Amino acid sequence: MAKLERMSEISRDDVAHLARLARLKLTDEELDEFATQIDGIVDHVAAIREVNTDDVPPLSHPTQNVDGDVSVMREDVVIPTLTAEQALDQAPAQDQQRFQVPQILSD
């Protein structure tokens, strides 16, 4: 893959323009910070684009493996769980088959 040249660094004015389009009000400090952050993101994307992927087959789905199987997750299997009594047997306080905890929010 040919190396791609970066056009230019993301400027503070570019961020201000994007903020105006998105109707965001940013402070001067935020404009400077976001310009640096966005420029770093663009650098990372440029580095990723340089990776040689010629021998990597394209995938049709994000969870597809190299053998073409789409689901790389295990099958859902129903297994026995704790009963309410077992789950609550060591709770310091319980009420109507639920853990009872101190109220932290007012009505």
| C-alpha termini separation | 63 Å
Rounded Rg: 27 Å
Relative helix content: 25-40%
Uncertain segments of ≥5 residues (pLDDT<50)?
none
Order of SSEs:
HHH
Oligomer: single chain
Shape: flat
Number of extended strands? 0
Mean pLDDT: 85
Percent of residues in β-strands: under 5%
Indicate the structural class: mainly alpha
Subunit structure: Heterotrimer of A, B and C subunits.
Keywords: ATP-binding, Ligase, Nucleotide-binding, Protein biosynthesis, Transferase
InterPro entries: Asp/Glu-ADT_sf_sub_c, GatC
Enzyme class: ligase
Furnish the topology, listing elements before pairings.
Elements (H helix, E strand, L loop, with lengths): L11 H10 L6 H22 L34 H5 L19
Account of the protein in words:
The protein is mainly α and 107 residues long. It has one domain (12-99). The chain is 35% helix and 0% strand. It is flat. The model has no long low-confidence stretch (mean pLDDT 85). Residues 88-107 are annotated as: Disordered. Residues 88-97 have a biased composition (Low complexity). Keywords: ATP-binding, Ligase, Nucleotide-binding, Protein biosynthesis, Transferase. Belongs to the GatC family.
Features:
107 residues; 3 helices
What can be said about this structure in brief?
The chain has 107 residues and is an all-alpha fold. It has one domain (12-99). It contains three helices and no strands.
